[in-house]
Batch of 3 targets.
Target 1
Amino acid sequence: MNAIIGQPVSRVDGPAKVTGHATYAAEFDLPGLVHAAMVVAPIPRGHIRSVDTAAAERAPGVLAILTHENAPRLPYHQIPQRPQVDAQSGEQLHVLQDAEVRFNGQPVAVAVAETLEQAVHAAELVRIDYARTPALTIFDPARGRPPSEGNVKAGRVPELGRGEAEAALAAAPVRVEARYTHPREHHNAIEPHVTIAHWEGEHLTLYDKTQWVDNDRKEIAHVFGIPEERIRVVSPFVGGAFGSALRTWPHVTLAAMAAQRVGRPVRLELTRRQLYTSIGFRPHSEQHVALGATKDGRLSALKHEVIQQVGRYEEYAETVLSPTSHLYSCPNLLARYRLVEMDTNSPCPMRAPGVVTGVLGLEMAMDELAVELNIDPLELRLRNYAETDEQKGLPWSSKELRACYATAAERFGWSRRRPEPRSMREGDQLVGYGMATAIYHSDRSAATASVALTGNGGAVVRSASSDMGPGTYTSMTQVAAETLGLPLEQVRFELGDTNLPYAPVHGGSVTMASLGNAIVAACGAAQKKLADLARAAQQGPFSGLPSEAVAFHGGGLARADGSGSVVPYAELLRQHNLGWLEAEGSAQPGEETKKYSSAAFGAVFVEVRVDEALGTVRVPRIIGAYDVGRVINPKTARSQCIGGMVGGLGMALEERADWDARFGRVMNANLAEYLVPVNADIGVTEAIFVPNDDRNFNPLGVKGLAEVAICGVAPAIANAVWHATGRRIRQLPITPDVLL
Amino acid sequence: MPPEPAQSFAVTLRVNGQSFETEIDARTTLLDALRDRLHLTGTKKGCALGQCGACTVLLDGKRVVSCLMLAAMAEGREVTTIEGLARGDELHPVQAAFVEHDAFQCGYCTPGQIMSAVGAIREGRAGSDDEIREQLSGNLCRCGAYANIVAAVRDAATREA
Ligand code: FES
Ligand code: FES
């Protein structure tokens, strides 16, 4: 049988997606479904003085108006060990539990009506009188403070380093130092967040947009103070999320609350504008990087300070210092992380949270150092190549970054780059080449899966994972099919339901390294169960054989010595009068985390064209080479990478939440004014995977893929803009007004 | 005080060659009518503001964003949605090309992309990569599948030509 892992298989759920038959959370058709619409606070801080719902309640079709005055009091029990996707300190928003307004956009009422139009209309009729109190709406780095204990315990440390960075910096023969910023950015998945809540007696079913059904259930169980067993979360398709659907947001509670009140299933879909305040975002960040180097380009000192905005009611912090700690070899390093409290909804992970920010500052500063030293930017990276993780003092489980540099540079034609800025032109356009390194730490978490071998000769594999787009359905089907020795079409993978075996969060690039190995284990467990039956049988070809004398291959059981024929799964099941046979398997991180540091790597090269008369930057080419360990499906993996490039281009050139400090509000909370890349913005996007197979990290040999794909893109573009124009724009996005 | 909303009334919508009689409200958009009244949920809601293209359908063969059109205005006209493209199990060439070229990840913008592509090809506006990029720039893909979308549309356009 041909290998299935490593083949560019088309998505198994592709036909469902292109025909409109994939069912996303909003689309479950429940009898008696009614609709909810939220009312949100228009002030950044204060409290509600009075609420008048009389007109709203009289409006046609209205079933209920919930406010803090009449909403049920919910226990909001603490989860003993906070899920890593939640803010690690402070207290989440207890929605409709009091009169306080903590941020602009906070849900303060919800209207429930027979139809969506009626609910929206009723929400407009709710009159609320607010008392405004002074708010923190300005990002003032001087107010920066270290992350609090909960976050420090979760690895979001205020400081890390080694050696004597200050002294080494002072003594360094060559130094560069600069400040870089990126604005608040929003996920803007095309599918809005939406929940359908349906109570049947004491049992609640949530059809929800989530990257983690198991955690969604746990959170709502704690909020409502009911046993997890009474909640089921269903989420077979997720229309993009990029981190926004990792944790459970207040609107999920609102939907469940509303459904309880009206005794009907309720759908609550956030509007595009509400998506800027009812879920999280990538926090505004300012960073200061100072590099010291010898004349021949060896880093001798690295100082990196990152300051980010954070909400006031709870504290979300990121692993911003992680890339700085180990991307380059440098004996003296000091990295510092500070948070500035603001009255805003809480930020949350957005693709490569923290790391994309840290890489941005570091990789732009490296480019500045290359200029200062008059060394090619790629050469500078090679001279400071980290052979080990110098912060952890561990070897890499694998690292093919040199191959990434070489492959991408060759493919891009980096050698054609002239070092001086403004030295390359095409017609009236300035041409710039830029590059940057990408890194994202690789993690894995405990996962379980089940495999049912079925009487028709196929298999059904299940786990409560998610597929927000990377192709979990497809890649897990490949892993199972190859492990069982069955053709792809004979295997079906099911996910997105809390009735299925426990899966870890679908985020942080952990899915394949975690769940993939659990599926291999589950396949092995099912095979063992079947083989044991065959060996224990009174008769048959395997009767009485020791376990090592039999082996599975080619879709069935055979004698290990190759004699006799292969008995297919279905035949074995029939012989034992079984319609099907099921087994569970699990996988979890082991000793490898103590022995190795693991990360995915990449090298990104871009070409920009700058029209100086218009201030526009076009990006005709982005070429990236990646070491992500073994690649299960090059087709879907490539899609993830080019998607990351598009996201990075947005970050570099387009994306910015415009913040009105008077009201603590995002002014451009829609897709026409908050710019994201469109088709015409994208030229050639090309991803190459360098061969690797990281068995030190996990048995499947995969690392992680989603996050590394966005890292490095924005700094490579900013560096290319410098090369084209000679202007170092340290504040993203690089929009025409900045360049003019 | 906003005016009292209109009563609901019955309309007949022609969708994918079939007639559907349904109760709507004067404010019901074509998009919401398709999704919530006719349960044709292949047409997606991304913004409800005419900014993302996820809700693109063909109205008398022309591309429109169905979130900016009232359902009542579609009476007597022919609506084609993503559900109306395939013939039984056989995918429309644009649909097949999207699967082949992996022109999506999450799949949420995909029906809109495909309807736009079908419209653009029919109008003869998918002649070059640049033209495809331009014609499909009203359809946002946050998963960033643009390069694959262009490849798929180019492929389907050449196959159909
Ligand atoms: S939903 Fe119609 S354009 Fe976005
Ligand atoms: S495929 Fe996810 S938005 Fe386009």
Target 2
Amino acid sequence: MTRHLSPLERLPRLPSIVRERVEPYFEALDVMTAVKDPKIFASLGPSGVRGLILQRGKQGVPTLIGSKHKAHFDWSYPSDQPEMLELYRRAKAGQWDGERDLDWSISVDPDNPEVPMVPENFFNADKIREFGIKLTPAEGLRLTHSTVAWMLSQFLHGEQGALLAAAQVTEAVQFFDGKLYGATQVVDEARHVEVFHRYLDTKLDKLYQINDNLFVIIDALMADSRWDMKFLGMQIMVEGLALGAFGMLYRITKEPLLKSLLGRVIQDEARHVHYGVLALREHIRTQLSEAERQEREDWAFEVALLMRNRFLSYEVYEEWFEGLLTRAQWQEVVNTSPGLELFRQVMFSRLVPNLRDIGLLSDRIKPYYAEAGLAKYFDGVSARELDETTMISALDAAGSFEIAAE
Amino acid sequence: MGTLEQLGLALTTPVRRRLEMLRRDLSMVGGRVVLGRRAPVLVDRSHAGARAWAHTIPRRPVRVTRVVHETDEASSFYLEEMDGSPIEFEAGQFLTFSVEVDGVTLRRAYSLASPQLPDEPRHVTVKRMPEGRVSHYLNDHCAEGTILHVLGPSGNFLLPPLSGRPRHAVFIAGGSGITPVMSLLGTVLATEPASRVTLIYGNRRREDIIFAAQLAALRERYGDRLRVDHVLNAPPRGWTGGEGLLDPPTLQQRFDALGLFGDTGPSDEEDVEVYLCGPSPMMQAAHEALRARAVPAASIREERFTQPEARTEARVYSTTPQPMSVQIRGLHADTVVKPGQTLLEAGLEGGIGLPFSCAMGGCGTCKVKLREGEVEMDEPNCLSAAEREAGYVLTCVGHATGPCVIEVER
Ligand code: FES
Ligand SMILES: [Fe+2]
Ligand SMILES: [Fe+2]
């Protein structure tokens, strides 16, 4: 799994009119050739084609994704997972109403510099300038508006994925207490879809299409028939990504409605990840062969890198800079932006310890994570050791509103 | 690429679906490579339809437990919440009934007539009004077990707290204006042993008197603490009570007959309070008569929504959508009032938390200051002339005739 000079990096010598047309495919190729393990390739490959090449999420029609998982019934109603039952109790008590509990009368003006959605230095404006593009302050604000709308759109699409995946997982999971808990997660995700959609529709008045890479991940885990892969994909990876992104935005936004919305959602998500950790820890330790465990370990690593490297707001790029910057240049802008750095930090500080906790961070894979610069998260706190309130107070405590790039 | 139909093939649905998908897949790739066209970055929301959160004024179901015919024209409907608990209210308040008649939602207020006592079943009493679609609907369709939809209770026609002295509550009521008065006087008699009540109650004929028997029973029970002065416009032969319309001369005569508001001035043993509820000519007459007796305005309370003659049916005030800005809690929100919508409906639909209670002009909860623009209001409308003068409007009956800016002051 060594890094190589990517096809994308070799591309810039093409004339720009040709480059624009084929660049996305080289990028796709880049993503897929990075996956070396044939098993992982077999599991992610078809989703990669559907998402990156065929852009199934952007065709303007509903997407149908088949799944062959088995619904797991148990007619003896065992009390099998006290910790999950406890989560179920907490979830019932923690229900909120997206209609009643958020103040939708707050008016949001994303172009108002007094109440910034995200701080000014969210983007690496110097990089953009270096590439020869000057943005007026008003344009800068609108670019941030676009980016926030893009992020929230992806959250929304992710929440839809979570809603449907949580329902599948509730069918497939073999723990009875897990099914009860799972039902609350389905409701939670529906509420998240509701509030993000409402926010985008009524406050930002904009909705971006699903990002191709996000589509790949959702497609892969929805289509996988193995329940633990769904779990791993949804409860650990996508939820981890979501928590990272929510946490980042929660910390930096000054927009009061968005902040309270995210605060609510984060507390729900904290339970979701906790549940994922509980279910998988047990399963991976007791039910899987070492080969199967390794497969999941590699899969998680690839998906983590996919999330880290590829979640690059290309839709914003296409809207703003297509023809002005190359995709590689855009990558550089995003990758050096303080906002993204903070996002990665929050995301991996949650994700890596969770992988450790469920047994997918053995010494075998650690060097690869280390190579990707993630070793500093090896000893962090996992979701099992962190409840909803602690998570929010940790964010609040860390919550300097400015982005302090490391 | 032609459509599949143009290929003239008879295809089964699953095959057609697959081919459709293939066509879309190919056109995604082909469009990009050949035509340099990429997928749009934004989701097309133009067909998304009405927003799921566009909410309307919330109403709740209540159950009719009993129907009692009070007169030929009026019936009482006993109500409880769906879980069987009594409806919480304060004496003098009303419920707004939201009824669908011929596909149109109509809202009308009916006062609870029961005293505010824990175990007393709650009821409203509804008299058929000529042309009154809701009153007819209720009288014709309600039976035990019927589910009705209500908002509230709302309203400020309430008993003020006692000042330390007992009160002498003087009620002047006309026709169905008796309903909140029944609640108020029943509550005073039952809960304030030292207070007393005088009721001047105007009707056309004896048969029209709603609650005649109940009032007689209260007389029996409370003796001198309750005086009831029936005044009939068309009295039967041998009638010994008051006669005439409740106009200023008749009222003066009744005041004299009852020894009310005499020259000696108010006593220091009790607080005299006057409560008015009835048709607007009666209300005006009462104000005039009371003014002539130097009764201070501060001791007069009135319920003004029950003026069926003043009701305007939903008119269209503007045929184009009008922008509305709302200043609320130091924040600022914008929305659009569609033709036929009230300001309240438009605000709620836009997710703005405008205050309201009765949603039919009767309680004043939705009062806002009109900062800019023009607003026309339906009747009934409980704003006083002074409030209208000062630029207040009720959003629940207000319609924008042009762009407007309103401010929620609380
Ligand atoms: S809400 Fe009662 S008057 Fe408007
Ligand atoms: Fe969620
Ligand atoms: Fe979730």
Target 3
Amino acid sequence: MSTAAAVKKPKISVPFDYSKYLRKGKLPHIWCPGCGHGIVLKSLLRAIEKSGLSKDDICMVSGIGCSSRTPGYVDFNTLHTLHGRALSYATGVKLAKPEMKVIVVTGDGDALAIGGNHFIHTCRRNIDMTILVYSNAIYGMTGGQFSPTTPSGSYSTTSRYGNIEPVFDCCELAKASGATFVARGTAYHVQELERIILESLKHKGTSVVEILDSCPVYYGRLNKMKSASQMMELIEKNGTVSVKQVDKLPPEKVQGKLLRGILHKEDRPEYCEEYQKLIDRVSGK
Amino acid sequence: MTEAAKKLPRIVIQEKLCKGCSICVDFCPTNVLEMRGPVVAVKNLEACTRCQLCDLRCPDFAIQVFD
Ligand SMILES: Cc1ncc(C[n+]2csc(CCOP(=O)(O)OP(=O)(O)O)c2C)c(N)n1
Ligand code: SF4
Ligand code: SF4
Ligand code: SF4
């Protein structure tokens, strides 16, 4: 990453002009009415503007899924790869071009089910990249099958009588696997999400941000939520508490809720740097 | 400043991009917007505080509020 670019503070226009980061003529996007993925994308673009990164410094990599369609809309270097394999491609890009800011956008299914193995080992290596997990508790693209984040008891096209599986906590999994920046945001808390993504972009090492967003068409409809707004209210607004408030709240207001904010941050040797050291050592530099 | 002289914001809706999800309507703190058929429309511009939340939460790049 170019550190010189990271300190520059650009003036942000109100309303924000997204068009400079979007490929021309691609809107409207394919996402359904009320799908949270567009809200997440907008928070990401504002965070990128604040980071001072230039478009050419960024490589956005995705797998397959509705969320993984994101790179098709943005004017960065982009790679739309295989289901579950975004992190492997991203690792290749980062090793070949360590100066590149690599941002991975991935669904909960893409990252944690088929891509779960790549997810834990990417975190373990602490390779410098930002991984945004668009966590809508469902496989959106393929018609609403349950994923590792579908809450127990809730409905999907493959759990018609209620899901009997326990969930993965994406953030705990990332932390336990060795990610050095772990955070959670939501599409409802848009400004907070922008700040969290900005911090994740500044971090050196593997940054994982789980973003709760909604698939009104499958998860919402199958779980009797009437609208995208109702889902945002129930899951994102009322289903989470900020790490900054959690100590001040009575236990009953915290119970059963997911924490939002930066949940873990540490410094640990970064993979590309260690790899370069190895090259230097072996080649006698 | 008198009421008449009060400068109103300008809310620009791109009807071709609006998918009618109603998120902006439901979360506007001062109830400025409404659904009119399949797309959003402004119903009470005077109440707009320029908070930008409608734009920030619109998934479709369809609404903007200019000062
Ligand atoms: C190897 C392989 N297996 C299965 C699929 C089918 N498939 C496409 S997208 C998808 C799941 C997408 O869900 P998620 O990653 O949660 O993203 P969302 O669509 O919800 O944003 C699946 C199973 C595929 N494309 N490739
Ligand atoms: S199917 Fe769900 S995740 Fe996919 S675009 Fe539609 S609402 Fe979004
Ligand atoms: S700027 Fe704020 S007050 Fe004005 S319409 Fe949008 S959400 Fe409502
Ligand atoms: S949030 Fe956007 S797409 Fe949804 S109704 Fe409002 S302007 Fe239209």
